[in-house]
Flavodoxin family protein
Amino acid sequence: MTAAPKILAINGSERDGNTADVLRYAAAHARTLGVEFEVVDLRSIRMDRCGPCGDCNDRTVVCAVGDDIPSVVRRMIEADGIVFAAPVHGFGTASLMQTFIERAGVGYLRFDRPLSNKVAGIISVARRYSAGEVWAQLTVNALLNRMILVGSGFPATVHALHRGDAAKDEEGMRNVERLVDRMSDMIGLLREHRELTGRDALAGGDRNERVGLPLNELVNAV
């Protein structure tokens, strides 16, 4: 029996607030589609900042900083799709998500791009300003990891200030629903293609963009 599709959401908010509420809404909608939807709250894991070593562009082994990032990366690899969700803080991406992008990307994902051809969705939450900028940054990060990005028509940007305001943004939440719908459909199409052909829908190719480091010098990230 084929396992249910699984979406893992990365919540980059420092608090249990509107971003968490949006993801709970997305999870409830996903369940109606028969999709498993889990959330990693970055505020609840042990995550250190990048250290002073400064050898990220030269190292051929995974990051030496010991925290919970490897276990989160493994969960991402096991999932069919990833949602990156973060609020706007100080006109930019909340610091927890920024730290996660740096630690996971430079320390683990860049070696062989294990998220290639997984389905990605992006959600940003803002009072009013910079929702598009944060959405764009997270989008570029997904594309860097060679993920298959699906849209929701208008971007899934939700406007909220006080706790509970997210639910009042009907258009934003409707776009979140559309995003989950399309992620579910794309996961199904990709699974069907793999079953019929035995291969990914898109070629993997050379997954190492690092200048001067041949592929055979790199190790698996996790």
In short: The CA atoms of residues 101 and 141 lie 8 Å apart.
